[in-house]
Amino acid sequence: MKITAISNLGLCGGKEALKEKISRLCEAGISEIILREKNLSVSEYCALFCEVLQICNHFGVRLFLHNFLDLAYELNYKFVWLPLQILEQKSNRNLAKFEKIVVSAHSTSEAKIALNLGANALCLSHIFPTDCKANLEPKGLDLIHNVREFWSGEIYALGGINFSNFHFVIESGADNIAIMSSAMTCENEKEFVKKFKI
To answer: Model-level pTM?
Structure first.
């Protein structure tokens, strides 16, 4: 199981604090990082991405470039994590150059669309109630079960996942978990990662 941390500048309090947080998570043994900063301009994101990539490379941790697909082409970067709408907008682009294309889906129909457009891994959300989406009903474990009926490939689960419920997600058919808020706000990164080890 991979434990994937999702960045959030707002929760960290700025770029320097975010880089320090990512460094500590990498040192603690996190599996992957998603640099999910959609509010930055392309140039701001690119600058931050290059800095964070150095940190992740130092620790041997995979970094996903999020959202900015054209930038991934420019940088010749092989690992992308995309909202479905971005994949739909760029559906005429050749995706063969990417090694891993994780696409977010919130229903079985969205999952099927993502796979038809070239995704080779899915992120299903949100599974449990979460403050990030307080007004939206969680999809529950059924979403994982239902997607598993037609997709045997890699599934990440996201949303309200913590060390007391993550095993339900894995038992339901997800391969990996993705976590944002608690990863960005934990005080002890080593203890945080340790709690998710099976």
So the answer is: 0.95
